[in-house]
Amino acid sequence: MATQVGIIIEGANQPHKVVDTIPRPSPEGRQVLVKCLATNGNESEALQHHTGMMVNEWPAILGSDGAGVVIEVGPEVTRLKVGDYVYSCAPVGQNRLTPFQDAYLAREDLLFKRGNNISLEDSCTIGACLLTSSMCLLGGAGLELPGDGKKAQEKDEWIVVLGGSGNVGQFAIQLGKLCGYKVLASCSPSKQSVAVHNGASATFDSRETIDAQIAEIKNITNGNFGKMMDASTYGYKVMVKALETASNAEERYLTSVDSWSPFSTPSSINEYRADLGHLCRPNERDGPKITSDIAYWIPLLERHIAAGTLKPLEHHVVDGVGWEKVIQGIQDMESGKIGRKIVVRTQEE
User: Fold this and answer.
1) Domain range 130-278, CATH class
2) Most buried residue, 17, 170, 237, 321, by CB count within 10 Å?
3) Fold of 3-126+312-345
4) What is the pTM of this model?
5) CA torsion, ordered 285, 173, 300, 107, to nearest 10 deg
6) CA angle, residues 153, 177, 271, in degrees to nearest 5
7) Which DSSP string do the residues of 57-111 spell out, in sequence order?
8) How sure is the predictor about 284, in pLDDT bands with cuts at 50, 70 and 90?
9) What is the Rg, in whole angstroms, of the alpha carbon atoms belonging to the chain?
C-alpha cells in the first residue's frame, strides 16, 4: 500500500510527530479522497491529545476541520467529482477520516463544497464550529433554517446565546439572526464588538454574577425568550435560572456544548447537549441521528455560505506551509497567544 505524510501521536499526552509511513486509503462507496490543503486546531484535538478520549486506534491521527480538493472518488459518488474544492468537520478518532495527513477519506454527503466567495483559509474556520452550533439550535432548540439562502423575517422574539464571542458562539449568533430571532449574547465587554459584528442585537457582561446576568436578560428581552444556548460550557446555571424565572415562554429550551458535566435540568425545560464526537459512529446511541442530521443540514448551510448570509470567522494564518507548521499552530492555539482561529496551510496544490 502507498504511504503518505502526516502527524501522529503514539499515546495520550505524547508529542506530535511528523511521519511518512501513514497508509494512503482508497475511497469506497460514497467516499471521496481529499487532498488536505489546510487545517486548524480545535479544542477537541487538545482533549484527544492530552487524555486519549475519542481515540479509536494508536498511533492516532488527529484533526477535525480540513479543507482541500477531491483527488479520487468512490464508485457510488454522485455529488462530487475530482477537482472539487471541499471542506468539512471530520469524524474524530477515526484515522482514515481525519485531516492531519496528506489525503483523507470523507463521505460525500458530509462535505461542504466550497464556492468562489470564500477562500481556502476561510473554509477552515467553518466546519466544526458551524455544525456544533447547528446541532444546538437546529437540532436542539428547533430553529428552522430558511432553505432559499435568504434571512427569515424577523420575529418579535429573542434567543439568548452565552459565550457569543467564541468561535461556536459567533456562528450561533449568525444562525439565530438568520432564522429570524433577535439575538442577545453574553461576552466580556472587550469582545462586545465581535458579538455585534456577527449579528447580536444586544449584549451583556458574562463576568457578572448569575443574578446580575438574569436581571440583564429580563430587562433586555422583557421575558420574550424561550431558547438559550451555552457556547461557553460555563453558563448552565444562568440558563436554568433565566428560563425558570425570567422567561414568559410556554416552551423552553436549554442547549449546550457541554456534553460531559452532570446536569439536573428541571422537567419543564427541554435539554439538548451537542456532541459532534458521535459523527460517523453508527454503533453509538446518538451516532446515526447526528450523522443523518448533519448530512441534511449541509446543503442548506452551504447555500447560506454561498449567499453570504453565513460568514466565516476571522482568523490568523500561520506563516509557511507544512505539517511542522500545523504543530506550531496547535501549540499557538493551546497557549492562547493568538486569540483567533488559527489556520495552517499543509501542502501546495
Assistant:
1) alpha beta
2) 170
3) Quinone Oxidoreductase; Chain A, domain 1 (3.90.180)
4) 0.95
5) -50
6) 110
7) SSSB---SEEEEEEEEE-TT--S--TT-EEEEEPPTT-GGG-SSBSEEEEEGGG-
8) confident
9) 20
